[in-house]
TrEMBL record:
Residues 10-73 form the HNH nuclease domain. InterPro entries: HNH_nuc. The keyword Hydrolase applies. Transmembrane segments: none annotated. GO terms for molecular function: endonuclease activity. This is HNH endonuclease. The lineage of its organism: Bacteria, Bacillati, Cyanobacteriota, Cyanophyceae, Nostocales. It comes from the Bacteria. Keywords: Endonuclease, Hydrolase, Nuclease, Plasmid. Gene3D superfamilies: 1.10.30.50. It comes from Okeanomitos corallinicola TIOX110.
């Protein structure tokens, strides 16, 4: 089991559909290649795709939620277990 080859495209698709908006806090994130204004922290405006049921191999559309990096971390910090940033899958937090 692993990530499908088209994960990148899939994630991109989901972000496009969401208008690059975090589904939790509504923050509009930076699109690829978009330059952040000087006064913001670009990392916080990085849209990522979260697996709702925490199963990274379950890539059904209803399981995939675009969220900004800070909401993403809060999903993983709260709820089940004490997963740390380092334990997040590289794909899960892959940028753009
Ligand atoms: Zn958010
Ligand atoms: Zn996640």
């Amino acid at each position: 089991m692993g990530y499908p080859k088209h994960w990148k495209e899939l994630a991109r698709d989901i972000k496009e559909k969401a208008d690059w908006r975090c589904q939790k806090c509504g923050r509009v994130c930076l699109r690829p290649g978009e330059k952040p204004p000087d006064n913001i922290k670009p990392r916080a405006y990085n849209l990522q795709v979260h697996h709702h049921n925490m199963i990274p191999t379950d890539n059904r559309l209803e399981n995939l939620i675009p969220v900004c990096s800070s909401c993403h971390l809060s999903y993983h910090r709260g709820g089940r277990g004490n997963i740390s940033v380092g334990q997040l899958s590289l794909f899960d937090i892959s940028q753009f």
